[in-house]
Prior knowledge:
Four copies of one chain form a homotetramer.
Chain A: E1 4-7, H1 8-18, E2 23-26, H2 33-45, E3 49-52, H3 56-68, E4 74-77, H4 79-84, H5 86-94, E5 99-105, H6 121-127, E6 136-138, H7 143-160, E7 163-169, H8 170-174, E8 176-179, H9 218-238, E9 242-245, E10 253-256, H10 259-274, E11 279-284, E12 286-288, H11 292-299, E13 306-311, H12 317-325, E14 331-335, H13 344-354
Parallel strand pairs in A: 2-3, 4-5, 5-7, 6-7, 10-11, 10-13, 13-14
Antiparallel strand pairs in A: 1-8, 6-12, 9-11
Helix pairs in contact in A: 1-2, 1-7, 3-5, 10-13, 11-12
Amino acid sequence: MGKVLMKGNEAIGEAAIMAGCLNYFAYPITPQSEVAEYLVKRMPEVGGVFLQGESEVAVGYMIYGASGCGERVFTTSSSPGISLMSEAISYIAAAQCPAVFVNIVRGGPGLGGILPSQADYFQATKGGGHGDYRLLVLAPASVQEAVEMVMMAFPLAEKYRNPVMIMGDGLIGQMMEPVEFPEHLKSEASNKDDWASNGMDTRKSDTRNLVKSLFLDPEALNQNNLTLKAKYDRMKEEEVRYEAYNVDSDYQMLIVSYGTMSRVCRTAIDQLKEEGIEIGMIRPQTLFPFPLEAIREAAVKESCKRVFSIEMSMGQMVEDVERSVLGKRPVEWFGKCGGDIPTPEEIINFIKSRV
Amino acid sequence: MGKVLMKGNEAIGEAAIMAGCLNYFAYPITPQSEVAEYLVKRMPEVGGVFLQGESEVAVGYMIYGASGCGERVFTTSSSPGISLMSEAISYIAAAQCPAVFVNIVRGGPGLGGILPSQADYFQATKGGGHGDYRLLVLAPASVQEAVEMVMMAFPLAEKYRNPVMIMGDGLIGQMMEPVEFPEHLKSEASNKDDWASNGMDTRKSDTRNLVKSLFLDPEALNQNNLTLKAKYDRMKEEEVRYEAYNVDSDYQMLIVSYGTMSRVCRTAIDQLKEEGIEIGMIRPQTLFPFPLEAIREAAVKESCKRVFSIEMSMGQMVEDVERSVLGKRPVEWFGKCGGDIPTPEEIINFIKSRV
Amino acid sequence: MGKVLMKGNEAIGEAAIMAGCLNYFAYPITPQSEVAEYLVKRMPEVGGVFLQGESEVAVGYMIYGASGCGERVFTTSSSPGISLMSEAISYIAAAQCPAVFVNIVRGGPGLGGILPSQADYFQATKGGGHGDYRLLVLAPASVQEAVEMVMMAFPLAEKYRNPVMIMGDGLIGQMMEPVEFPEHLKSEASNKDDWASNGMDTRKSDTRNLVKSLFLDPEALNQNNLTLKAKYDRMKEEEVRYEAYNVDSDYQMLIVSYGTMSRVCRTAIDQLKEEGIEIGMIRPQTLFPFPLEAIREAAVKESCKRVFSIEMSMGQMVEDVERSVLGKRPVEWFGKCGGDIPTPEEIINFIKSRV
Amino acid sequence: MGKVLMKGNEAIGEAAIMAGCLNYFAYPITPQSEVAEYLVKRMPEVGGVFLQGESEVAVGYMIYGASGCGERVFTTSSSPGISLMSEAISYIAAAQCPAVFVNIVRGGPGLGGILPSQADYFQATKGGGHGDYRLLVLAPASVQEAVEMVMMAFPLAEKYRNPVMIMGDGLIGQMMEPVEFPEHLKSEASNKDDWASNGMDTRKSDTRNLVKSLFLDPEALNQNNLTLKAKYDRMKEEEVRYEAYNVDSDYQMLIVSYGTMSRVCRTAIDQLKEEGIEIGMIRPQTLFPFPLEAIREAAVKESCKRVFSIEMSMGQMVEDVERSVLGKRPVEWFGKCGGDIPTPEEIINFIKSRV
């Protein structure tokens, strides 16, 4: 299968199918409804299931159910919808079930707007739900990368038996780009017979699997939390992904930016380069685990005077950038939130003002 | 009214009434159900309203409704229940309505357990819901402090037109202590006629107030977010509260700890002092805004070699402690999560192991 | 209190208050929403409670709850809303709790229309819900009669410990007429301490009352049903109400008609009398118990050749008229359903066509 | 396919599949849960869909949705569950959609019990929901007949574009009998392109079908009701089914009885015959339309002195029997309700007492 021109939301839907996920439960909300529109037709063609829940609360628990039975399953939603799934996500993480959540972020808080935003960074990376859990959070910067991250998300979720979140934004969802679905990212669902509640098929297993998040005994709960913590520590070691840009130059300043926002930053960096101003960039591809060390290392380069966290949110990732830089360079936030993406010119002006 | 011996959950209920809040909407969940049990009897006696919603999702929106009409209103819940309110909390913050949420945290994630925990630190301080918003988060360490914080919470919520969260834990809720309800913390509800949707009483106002969180125009949404950001920045300047303990000594190490956990730490510090080991402590009373500077200042004292974030969670506040200390001292997490509160001995052993 | 000009829906609300009912739970639906609009303001003035449920299903069970606690309680709704309460009504009847339901019938089935109709006759009289139960069904033909029936409904419900339904129609609800609230219809709630689950106040009762509809033992269930049957038989003996019109004449035909429809029939009868055609009418005021004998007796008068069931439904009451007349005279249905009430002329034409 | 020994509930499930119905939506409730248990496994094997709704209210509307799209669809439930579907059933009838509802009746009202009953006769035949509509109601007396009625129900529902209800009881559902699935009852779904909202496939139709129950214009609503009435009148002419037993004898009394109850009556009749007492029986197989004329005719046989309506309910069908006999013979009810089915001896004793 060669390159096809597809809308981001449709490519996300197709990528899940390519990844062997035949269960999609969702509730429509702008700007991700096209995923549902695409899959309501496509799932039956491939023998898959599309179920619209009666609410996002329900969808969250439908995901839990399918996942707990050992099925590959995913949903897509947008900001308020993800909030409604918060309790279920916490349950799924606690019960150590793999599942994939795609958040095509819109402007918030509240109803907010329907244009692109990155304002759910905290919710995605620090946990919207209660309790000690983490999501593995992937942030694509193009439709192609969204496709690849969706395809990677399922085996990653299974590797860690943990929910994985793809945090996109309305722009990724709405724009059309040529994409391909890499063969090498196709994967087999891992063997789930040792934990999934898949019907006690005695041909498959002779033990009774129990999927649950209730641990009334404090020691058992502590133990479950330690198991989770060990997984998150392992993620920090094995799953950090980022892209460095123009870091071979003697950059005066370092940008940290992700997703759609990073593409605008790249344009700004290119234009500044022509003017003789060198700017480096680290683009986190995983928001959790966060590339703390890569950023720290890049920040302390001698030529580098300042670090900027450029976000389509009012200062969220900047806290993780501060934790990365650890005071060795001044860290500043620049951004906008509401749907108007900062332009290259606005970024250039901001950077020049900080020279 | 002098001192009375009261259970924490009951004292919280009474404190809200003392603060002039006559609207309480809730859904029962261990370990906060006693607040509802207390108020279902008490509210009618004072002419107030207790409504049990059909779910926590509903309660969240009932709070939004009452608050948007200019009424003092509060709820109490515990971890999973707060997750279900996440969307509503985001709406309330977006619409700039004052309201008070009490979270008597239990062990999580998922159903978890029903014993004390602090595992909702991230959810409370970074936002469980979607979008750029913050809660003002107060963390009491005793029943008396819970009473005072509840009484302060209402005028604070009105000062900022923002939800305030009291983050307690099951121990605070269940234990009995003598309390008093300070006269000076009683307050009048502030005038809400300039923004609340209170029926267009022409004797009160001649403009039509619209309470909403939908801003389809990106510039309007950006503007709303800037207004919110300005409020949160103002909170950082005006509302940081913390308690310092044993910081006049030449402490070798600094503990950061809050709530019930900090009381155990205090016992450990006292015992270590007798052994000649000096340990300082900063106890954040506000978790947002976080006492970044107080901690940084205390951490860099020459005698101080290390900083510990001691939590009943698996490493959450430690991220804010790292942002405080900024690499000037090693920061380490110590904690437990599941219901068994670390004992003074466990803390002493840990500290000695780090000398 | 003398006569006041009131809209039917408002008069119904006030009548309930006059009857000493201070609990009103409802969900808005045209054409009864004015009852809710009236009572949302009026209930607080008299110290009563108005609660809007989250759905009619919920309202039904809120009624059950309050009633089971021994409170006078009522609701108003319209056709689809009553369908949603069907299960709860069956529970309330099974548990022998008094409660008053007002159905301002609109055209059905399905969403139908919002204009007057009598199409819920079967649902009201044969039981919309499952199982062997009956409602005592009152059908007013004027706003004044609606007021009186609402005031009577509460003591009747308590006399039989059974739900009472007032079956009105959109016209009764919407039209304005001068009404008075008869002093003699005011009533005290009967003593419920011997059956209501009202908190085991030991000053009131020393036995534990259990309100329930579950009887797993078949003999206990049969016994409960026999008790219910005995009550319904007693209603048939003691509660049959009807109005006879022009039955002293040597009428050639007999009309059976109720509610708003009967007023049109009366006009037609008056006009036909002027033309020398005598028509009698029996107007059931109770639809259950149905005035079987009064109709039979009136039908067999020698001058009477035919009996008509004239309804704003497609032939429902006609079945009960057939059961009354028992083949001694031909029984025919005439009616219309959809909102257009048959006019006097249409009735006159129909009658003339049957001479 | 020859005879197979099957439990009634399972046979009902298999019969629907044999009838070509591949959509089954349901919510579990005793005593019909085995249908769901059977179909949750069986539907996937035949490429069908089993969906458990979140409540019976939801199931009712899922049925409406599938039916409105032109799919063969059915559900099974028991008494309280059917009450919760009342509103949806009214909508489906109003919108003239075919669908099959199976009610495995349990004792009521309210929660009642879980043993066999016929107490939903009124609900099924007079309409549980609001408005002028009727269900075609079939009442099987054996597992084999249940199979056949389920298989007939789908083409009947399509012939009339109206919901069909199978009214069974717990005994039919629970007992095992050898059954076969007659080839001649297999049917093709009728062409629904002229009315179903099936996606405007221009290969299938070039008009836009609208499935709805809202008719705000009173004349349109009246017209819809007249269309419905015409269908119900046609049912009365074409669909009346009943079985006569021992009517060639000079029976002294006539029993009217249906379903499981009629089998006990048959045993009683056989035993009485041995004693020289002749009793006839008419067993309605359709409860709506009701075999009024067959009963009337059988009742007026010269030898016949009395007519009995023998029911597992407290006197429901007896009203229709009265409408049949029209006073030409005394009509009496005999029955029991709660789960204990009257024994042959009890029936014999009752009959002897009435000689």
